[in-house]
Write a structure and sequence with these properties.
The complex is a heterodimer of chains A (204) and B (105). Chain A is α+β, with helices and mostly antiparallel strands. Chain A has 2 domains: 27-33 and 115-200, 2-Layer Sandwich (Gyrase A, domain 2), CATH 3.30.1360.120; 35-111, Alpha-Beta Plaits (2-Layer Sandwich). Chain A has 4 helices and 11 strands; from the N terminus they run ββαβββαββαβββαβ. Chain A has helices at 47-58, 94-102, 126-130, 182-193, and strands at 27-31, 35-42, 68-71, 74-80, 83-89, 107-111, 116-122, 148-153, 156-163, 172-178, 198-200. In chain A, a hairpin with a 2-residue loop joins strand 3 and strand 4. The longest helix of chain A is centred in the first third of the chain and has 12 residues, at 47-58. Chain A is globular. Chain B has helices at residues 36-43, 99-104, and strands at residues 3-6, 10-13, 18-22, 52-58, 66-72, 78-83. Chain B is 13% helix and 31% strand. By secondary structure, chain B is of the alpha+beta class. In chain B, a hairpin with a 7-residue loop joins strand 4 (52-58) and strand 5 (66-72). The longest helix of chain B is centred in the middle third of the chain and has 8 residues, at 36-43. The mean pLDDT of chain B is 90. Chain B has 2 helices and 6 strands; from the N terminus they run E-E-E-H-E-E-E-H. Chain B has a single domain (3-27, 35-83), classed as Folate-binding fold (2-Layer Sandwich), CATH 3.30.2270. Classes of the chains: A alpha+beta (204), B alpha+beta (105). The A-B interface holds A 65-66, 79-81, 83, 135-136, 149-152, 157 and B 1, 8-10, 12-13, 15-16, 61-65. Chain A: This is Sarcosine oxidase subunit gamma. Chain A: It comes from Fulvimarina endophytica. Chain A: InterPro entries: SoxG, TrmE/GcvT-like. Chain B: GO terms for molecular function: sarcosine oxidase activity.
C-alpha cells in the first residue's frame, strides 16, 4: 500500500490577495498559520483552583470575561463563562497535550489548531473596516489592548481580540473563526476593505 | 440598533441573541401522573401578557449562555436581564405595569 502524504494547507490558502489602492494600504492582513490553539473549559467548582494553577504554571491570571492575558509565551482569550481559547506560537499538536497535562483535573482541553483560522488585521483604517462588520464599540476607551469578545463579524461567528499596536503605531486585531468560514469571511473583508486598500503580509 | 445586556458579556447587538420563549416554566415533577389538560398547559399554554414579560434568551453568537430577560411587550424595552436560576426581579421601578402583579391584586 502506497504511503499517504498529507500536506498541510492554510485556511486562507489561495484566497488572500491585495485589494484596491495599496499606495499605501489602509489595512494589512496576515494569516496566523503558526498559532496552535486549544479550548479550555473549567470543571465544575474548580475555577479558583484553575486560577492558582494558571499563575503557578504560566505566570498569568485567568482572564475575566472579555479579556485576553499573556503568560510565558502563550495567551488566553476569554470566550464565555468558564471557557477560554489558549494560543501558543509554533505550539504544534503537542501544545494541547501539554496544556491538558498541566490543567489535569481542573479543566477540559481540546485541540482546535485545525478548527480555527486566525487573521491578524492592522493598519491605519483597520477600525473603519471592522466597524462595518462588528456590532461592538471598538474605540480605544471601550476596546483597548487586552480586550476580547466572542461576537460576529460580517455575520460570521468570530472571537476577536486586540493586540498591542505595531511598529507603525497602528492598532492590531486578531480574528479567529471556524476554518470553513474562511472564504465567507474573506468575501466580507475584501469587499469592506476595498475602499481603503488591503495588502497581504506573509503568513506566520 | 437594539442592545441587550448579556449577564456575562455586557451590552451586545440584538442580532447576536435568540429568544427562547417564556421563562420560569418548571417541568412538572411527575409528568406521568398529570391529566392531558395539565400536561397541555405545561407544554403549550403561555401568558402572552401586554406589559412586562419574563423571557429566556440565548447569547447564541457570543458566549452561548442562556439567561432571562424582563421585556415590556408594548414598547419592546428590555428592563432587566438576569442569570438562569435567579428569581424574577422586582421591576416595580420600571414604571411598566407588571401583569403578574395585576393578576394577583
Amino acid at each position: 500500500m502506497a504511503e499517504i502524504q498529507l500536506t498541510s494547507v492554510e485556511a486562507f490558502d489561495g484566497l488572500l490577495k491585495p485589494v484596491g489602492d495599496v499606495r499605501p494600504a489602509g489595512v494589512r492582513v496576515r494569516e496566523r498559520s503558526t498559532l496552535a490553539l486549544a479550548t479550555v473549559m473549567v470543571r465544575k467548582g474548580r475555577r479558583a483552583d484553575l486560577a492558582n494553577r494558571f499563575s503557578d504554571a504560566f505566570g498569568c491570571a485567568l482572564p475575566d470575561a472579555g479579556r485576553r492575558t499573556e503568560g510565558n509565551d502563550l495567551a488566553f482569550v476569554s470566550t464565555g463563562p468558564g471557557a477560554w481559547l489558549a494560543c501558543r506560537e509554533h505550539g504544534g499538536y503537542e501544545f494541547s497535550e501539554s496544556l491538558a497535562e498541566t490543567l489535569s483535573g481542573l479543566a477540559s482541553v481540546t485541540d482546535q489548531s485545525d478548527a480555527f483560522a486566525v487573521l491578524s488585521l492592522s493598519g491605519p483604517r483597520v477600525k473603519a473596516v471592522l466597524a462595518k462588520g462588528v456590532f461592538l464599540d471598538l474605540g480605544d476607551a471601550a476596546f483597548p489592548e487586552g480586550h476580547a469578545a466572542a461576537t460576529q463579524c460580517g455575520h460570521v461567528g468570530v472571537t476577536l481580540w486586540r493586540r498591542p499596536a505595531d511598529e507603525a503605531g497602528d492598532p492590531v486585531y486578531e480574528v479567529a473563526m471556524f476554518r470553513s468560514y474562511a472564504e465567507s469571511f474573506w468575501h466580507w473583508l475584501s469587499t469592506s476593505a476595498a475602499e481603503y486598500g488591503l495588502t497581504v503580509e506573509r503568513a506566520g | 440598533m437594539l442592545l441587550l445586556e448579556c449577564p456575562y458579556c455586557g451590552k451586545r447587538a440584538e442580532s447576536e441573541f435568540h429568544c427562547g420563549g417564556e421563562a420560569h416554566i418548571a417541568r412538572p415533577e411527575t409528568p406521568a401522573e398529570l391529566d392531558d389538560q395539565a400536561w397541555a398547559e405545561y407544554l403549550y399554554y403561555r401568558t402572552n401578557p401586554k406589559g412586562l414579560h419574563a423571557e429566556r434568551w440565548q447569547h447564541r453568537h457570543g458566549c452561548g449562555r442562556w439567561f432571562n430577560a424582563l421585556r415590556d411587550t408594548v414598547s419592546d424595552k428590555v428592563v432587566e436581564t438576569y442569570k438562569m436560576g435567579e428569581p424574577r426581579p422586582d421591576a416595580s421601578n420600571a414604571n411598566i405595569p407588571d401583569p403578574a402583579k395585576v393578576r394577583s391584586a
